[in-house]
Amino acid sequence: MPLLVVLVIAVVVVVLVMRASASGRTGGGARTPRIRPRRPSRPVAPDDDPEFMRELERRARRDDGSPT
């Protein structure tokens, strides 16, 4: 009889652990928030980047002495 009680308790514990681990994936219960990949903080194209354009203009002025 005590072996049966231990077996039932073990089964209950296993079921509770499996439910707790599955709740994070299925949306039930309290989940840990997913980390979204951050968008690049800089513009993608170089001609959309104001810093790049300033540097390009500075180089152009330095090369020929006058802005293009």
Provide structural commentary.
With about 70 residues, the protein is an all-alpha fold. It has helices at about 1-25, 50-65. The chain starts with a helix and ends with a helix.
Task: Give me the secondary-structure topology.
Blueprint: H1 2-26, H2 50-64
**Strand pairing plus helix content: what structural class?**
mainly alpha
What is the overall silhouette? Answer: rod-shaped
- Oligomeric form: single chain
- Main pleated-sheet profile: none
Distance between the termini: 94 Å
Over the alpha carbons, how many angstroms does the gyration radius reach? Answer: 31 Å
Q: pLDDT average, as an integer?
A: 77
H/E order of the elements? Answer: HH
The low-confidence parts are none
Q: Could you tell me the number of beta strands?
A: 0
Strand % is under 5%
Keywords:
mainly alpha, 2 helices, 0% strand, rod-shaped
